[in-house]
Amino acid sequence: MIDMRSDTLTKPSEEMREVMRTAIVGDDCYGEDESVNNLEDYCKELFEVEGALFVPSGTMANQIAIKAQVEEGNEIITEANYHINFYESASTAILSRAVLNCVRKKDGIINKGDVEELINSKPRGPLYSKPQLVTIENTINYYQGKTFPIETIKSLYNYTREIGISLHMDGARLFNAHIATGVPLKEYARNVDSLSVCFAKGLGAPYGSMLMGSEDFIQSARALRKQFGGGLHQIGMYAAAAQYALDYHLIKIKKDHQLTKEMAVLLNEIPEISINVESIETNMIFININSLTNNTNEFLRLCEEYGLLLFPWLPGLVRIVINRHISREDIYKASEIIKTVVKKLSRSVVYV
After folding, report:
1. Which among 65, 63, 57 has a CA at the least distance from the CA of 90?
2. Please, which pLDDT band fits residue 31 given cuts at 50, 70 and 90?
3. Residues of each domain in the chain carrying CATH 3.90.1150.10
4. Which GO biological process categories is it annotated with (predicted)?
């Protein structure tokens, strides 16, 4: 079975498992897990930030960042389809009791003008909700793994500093953005107040994210991690896995992007499917199947029947994600399976 549902499905290599087996561990709640400390110090140098905190998940990283920077009843400005609203709105409501004020952008890129418009979209003052945080996402999952332009980030950061609110980057797939654009990780970090990165997606580690920012921010974040139930004890084996991924898997993300482009070209040769190959920036392809069927699950069922797993993104829209376990042979096989399924469904379409 070829599994292209997500890059969260990556599994540790044998070498990574051995690193985990032999990892030095201690009690991280006491600050005594050497492997965790080493990973946090490494990320501080890599991103050139004052502080770094190893947390269980990307969602926890984002939620800690929100809680640390937004008072109850106040406002977070973001794009409607970013993970923080699309998947985490309940978490934000429960944990921070904060308001999400969203814009919906055709290209997914929120800019200074959008933030100004949202701020001015309702009454402000001591009786009303106060905007305290802008959040962005890089790469953007909903928009086919699109990278967020660094110049737009700089403009946003300058503006948020000017008006006295914070800027957080959900960088769950920031390593993909870094490889795709060549923008240094430290360049992203210096143009936001806080950011998170995930080790369990394209990097192939089994666990964890890193939350980064100023020393004061991380001090607050450490307390919140404990309050949110994320203070763990002997966790060094997971930190060692993340370190191994940074050392040996980061550069391999480039191969994932190359294979994604190649697969987009192959799929574009199927007459019933139209893909803008130039729009493929990282490791995702979205296929619109509305012209073939109004039953996304039927398309997915047929693909699975032939040996391919894909993800149902939205009704009529299927997501393909290339990860480190996918080979060139796999993308050719997968493209042939999709071609077969498309032909099968095309024969069942009745035009009137």
Report:
1. 63
2. very high
3. 250-348
4. glycine biosynthetic process; L-threonine catabolic process
Query: What percent helix, strand, coil does the chain show, rounded to 5?
Result: 45, 15, 35
Amino acid residing at 313: W
Collapsing DSSP to helix, strand or coil, 320 comes out as: strand
How many Cβ atoms sit within 10 Å of the Cβ of residue 163? 11
Residue for token digits 């654009």? Answer: 181
* Sequence-ordered list of residues with C-beta below 8 angstroms from that of 156, at least 6 positions apart, any chain: 110, 111, 112, 115, 134, 136, 167
CB under 8 Å to 21, separation ≥6 — which residues? 237
* Chain centroid offset of residue 129 CA: 28
**Distance of alpha carbon 314 from alpha carbon 70, whole angstroms:** 31
Query: What class, spelled out in words, does domain 12-248 have in CATH?
Result: alpha beta
CATH code assigned to 250-348: 3.90.1150.10
